[in-house]
Amino acid sequence: MALVGRPKLGQNHWVLDRVLPLDYAVPEPYFAHAPEGVWQNFCSLLSRDVYSEGDSQSLYDYVMSRRAEMTSDFLAMLGLWLADELKHYEALRRTYHSLSGVSFADMDRSFSARVHDFEPLQFALQDEFTLLVTLMFDEIGSVYSYRRDLAEYYRHFGPNIQKIGHHLVKDEGMHFNNAAELLLSHHRHRLGEVEVFLEQISQLEGRLKTYYKTFFLDHAQEQYRFPRHFNQVIIRVILARLGLGQPPASKELKELWQWVPEGYSLVPIFSAATRHAAAVS
Length: 281
Hints:
Layout: H1 16-19, H2 28-33, H3 38-54, H4 56-64, H5 72-100, H6 104-112, H7 128-152, H8 159-186, H9 194-208, H10 230-241, H11 250-258, H12 272-280
Helix pairs in contact: 3-5, 4-5, 5-8, 7-8, 7-9, 7-10, 7-11, 9-10
């Protein structure tokens, strides 16, 4: 049997304190000059994103409880991934605090009250293979989600906040690539299962309608912010990365983060009451 090469794992190295110190305050002119509705929408978005990044710890703990089933390369990748995601959690806490004034203590209380329910996601958590494919699905979705957020929100509040957005996009792209490397190194014999599994994950996300605070499939809480074919396009991105198909055209990729619902100039952050109507319109 031919030897399989070791996966090439990468990490985007950056120091949070140099980008956004703990006591950072957004200069007042940025609030005054931001387009109408941007500040309010950004705060609403951050009130979710802060905590879903922190949920990475619960997913890590869940997987580590089954570490005997995992390869050493997967566990090494997971350690890098967790370090990045917890940095994102702290970065978004600082961003949220600097924009909204919500205290770190209040955020801590909100986070400690969260209940993480892995039962609805068991299909995605079967083994190392399904975890990696789900991670690719989740992380490439985050790449385009954060690209939208960067264009709509982060760029309006100064270079420090904007740089946080850029690092989020780059980190999630690295996580996507690391998962691909592991699949190609350790699970090449199962690549024929990837496309069907991705379709099933996409369907699961659609059925969930909500987010169970497990880090995975957190986009279920904001599907209305993206065009209906979002998942189909990112599935093609994943298949192309694994050598299983052709990549989408650049125009299709741009639409993932530039699309807005008809009648809007900015994708609104809907309330729970209006979210369903937006999703089916």
